[in-house]
Specification:
- Strand 2 and strand 3 (about 135-140) form a beta hairpin.
- By secondary structure, the chain is mainly alpha-helical.
- Strands 1-3-2 form a three-stranded antiparallel beta sheet.
- It contains eight helices and three strands.
- The protein has two domains: about 5-45, no CATH class; about 50-180, Winged helix-like DNA-binding domain superfamily/Winged helix DNA-binding domain (Arc Repressor Mutant, subunit A), CATH 1.10.10.10.
Length: about 180
């Protein structure tokens, strides 16, 4: 792809290539090749996503794993609920008890026990729906949101700085990213 450069931008690029050539004691052609290679390498580095996008992707991958295996072998209801509440908090969205139970992927009775425990240890709080007294909303507490944000960011950081993998290791992860994007 070619772009139109102003004469000032063209001059800056030529100066940069010249400085690089002088500093490295290489030809101007080698300097341009080096700049091109650096740009290509920079474009291949995975893009850091927002915590909300990354947490949503984590949930999607976890759900797809369960769907693919045909069983809920990858379920961790409390973690799935906290991820869902983290995403909701970042999106400014309220989550009803029934929606959170559904997001957990386990039977309602199991999900309700987890919600009760998360409430007891101060990670979530219940709020009544002022328009419909039969319904309640669940939200992660501010300290829980802060901690979950840090945890998800650490997971993303670890994924971004993981050592290079051979193609056989990378293929399943790429496939999981594709599935999460669906």
């Amino acid at each position: 792809m070619q772009i139109a450069l102003s004469s000032q931008d063209y001059s800056r690029l030529m100066t940069l290539a010249g400085q690089l050539a002088a500093r490295r004691r290489i030809t101007s052609t080698e300097a341009v090749d080096l700049i091109e290679s650096a740009v290509i390498d920079a474009e291949s580095v995975p893009r850091r996503r927002s915590v909300t996008e990354f947490a949503s992707g984590m949930l999607a991958v976890r759900n797809r794993c369960n769907d693919t295996m045909g069983a809920s072998v990858f379920r961790d209801p409390a973690w799935d609920m906290m991820l869902d509440l983290l995403v909701a908090a970042h999106q400014g969205r309220q989550v009803s008890v029934s929606s959170l139970c559904y997001a957990s992927g386990v039977p309602n009775s199991t999900a309700l026990r987890h919600i009760e425990y998360l409430d007891q240890i101060g990670l979530v709080e219940r709020m009544p729906d002022l328009d419909d007294h039969r319904r309640a909303y669940i939200a992660a507490t501010p300290p829980a949101i802060e901690q979950m944000t840090k945890i998800v960011a650490r997971i993303q950081d670890a994924a971004l700085v993981a050592p290079p993998m051979v193609a056989e290791q990378r293929a399943p992860l790429h496939a999981m990213e594709i599935v999460a994007a669906i």
